[in-house]
Amino acid sequence: MTNRSRRHLRPVRDVAAPALQFRTIHGHRRAFRIAGSGPVVVLLHGVGDSSTTWEPVHAKLAQRFTVIAPDMLGHGESDKPRADYSLAAFASGLRDLLTTLEIDRVTLVGHSLGGGLAAQFAYQYPHFVERMVLVSAGGVTKDVSVALRVAAMPMGAEALCALKLPGALSALGLVSRVVGSVKGSARFTRDVASLPRLVDGLCKPGAVDAFARTLRAVVDTRGQFVTMLDRTYLMHDLPVQIIWGEDDLIIPVSHARLAHEQIPGSRLEIFEKSGHMPHGDHPNRFVEVVQRFIDSTTPHQHQPDLMRKALQTGVRQDLHAPVVNVASDLA
Fold first, then answer.
1. 95-106: per-residue pLDDT in tens?
2. 254 is catalytic
3. To 10 degrees, the CA torsion angle through 3, 88, 111, 175?
4. What is the value of pTM for the model shown?
5. Of 51, 78, 112, 274, which residue is the catalytic one?
6. 300 is known as an active-site residue
7. Known catalytic residue: 237?
């Protein structure tokens, strides 16, 4: 299933629905949904979510590509052991899954925490990554919604179990609609539709504990404490597309603009009338942007020498630019 042999295949018009499959790695069952053929695109979901978040776009993208949407360990249909739920561990788990599937080159599309995972994976395993799409991504700077900060508090994530109670989701939806009507904006209701799916996921045994461990690995009461921006100088000619919802209340759209400024050569698309789930709010536009991005960029080729020089100097090394030597400043 390697990507190398598929790059020049013609697009596929009709594909079967994404199929749920499993692989057991290190004794834990990992779930993923796969469809299509062609170059490999990997869709990475956010914290507490699952591969089902990609349903609006998975089959459409699979008309052109092999599209794999994993359930991260602790999420969806994957096992939920008492384990390491750090970004580095998730990146290692993704590497192991791709290796098991005999895939060595991918375009990463990461939503929310999955965006932070995509950046972490590109840092740990740059030879795998052809391109990267950050969708309302975590890991840019510290400010995030109050809800996530509260959930990161002791027993905060566990309190989300209250949403399972009869009528809780309906009441929350009503409150959001009232706030929206008072403020005169629909932005307060855009992401409410995704709550039933998230709550259903939390009902699975071990899911709340996994959610809490995952969230607390990147967020505390002061916000996010893990950032990708301190390593953007290592992204040598890596094509990066940023997609964000203008009305994102979970991770503000200001993060998109900051990431765009800090990642040289990145592209930015801000979806109007969209919240934290731009791929769900505007699936056709999302697919169009991703396809255009892939079609118009050259797959990244990892350059170990450039990475070594960048790590030694702390300065981005470009293929066609003279090397700036600041080693004396580090002495």
1. 999 999 999 999
2. no
3. 160
4. 0.83
5. 112
6. no
7. no
